[in-house]
Amino acid sequence: MPDVAEAWTSTGATAVNGLPALLASAPLTADTSWWTIAALALVVVCVALLIGWIASQGGGRTSTVGRQGSAMGNTTVETSLVADALRTALEENGQILAVAVSSWRVRRQTGLRVRVQPRRGASPGAVVAAANEAIAGLDTLLGERIPVLVSVQTGARTRFTRTRRVD
Question: What span, in angstroms and rounded, lies between the C-alpha atoms of 80 and 100?
Fold first, then answer.
């Protein structure tokens, strides 16, 4: 597109040719312009905003689900214990192929992400009901309710497995 290239070239040349005049229009000293200070201030503000945005993001993965302390000592529940408990409870269900559990810190609180991979042809409602039942059991086991995100996903493993038949 020659017209666009020509317009881009002429606009760039005009901007570059006008830059010395712009810098000379607001001198701070013989070598420095107020525009340079403004550009640096803009960069500092952008960096501060980026650092604030990064700090506001979640805490990321964690290896512990919870901690409770008493006079007798501290008890720490590891994510691997919760993952094994949920995996054992859910993989007994014939409609579920795999379960993956991870824990995350979000807003000073730990939450779980449970990814359930159902068999091909499995009822999503039955899979979610089984996950909810297992999570209710987990809440009873831990003695407190923790936030849980249940994600039902399909993948290559689901496509290549056979559906289970009821005899």
Answer: 10
- For residue 33, give every residue at least 6 positions away whose Cβ sits within 8 Å of its Cβ, in sequence order, or none: 22, 23, 24, 25, 26, 27
**Nearest alpha-carbon partner for 113 in 137, 85, 78, 149:** 149
Higher local confidence (pLDDT), 155 or 166: 155
- How does pLDDT run across 72-103, given as a tens digit for each residue? 888 788 888 888 888 888 888 878 888 888 88
Helix axes 79-91, 124-142, angle to 10 degrees: 140
Does residue 149 contact residue 112 with C-beta atoms inside 8 Å? yes
CA distance 132 to 130: 5
pLDDT the model gives residue 66? 75
Statement: residue 64 has pLDDT above 80: no
What residues are paired with 69 via a beta bridge? 74
In terms of C-beta density within 10 A (0-12 exposed, 13-18 middle, 19 or more buried), how is residue 22 classed?
exposed
CA R_g for the chain? 29
Half-sphere exposure of 93 (CA within 13 A, CB side): 25
**Cα(64)–Cα(84) distance, integer angstroms:** 14
* CA distances from residue 66 to 57, 76, 85, 149 in whole angstroms, order as listed: 20, 6, 15, 16
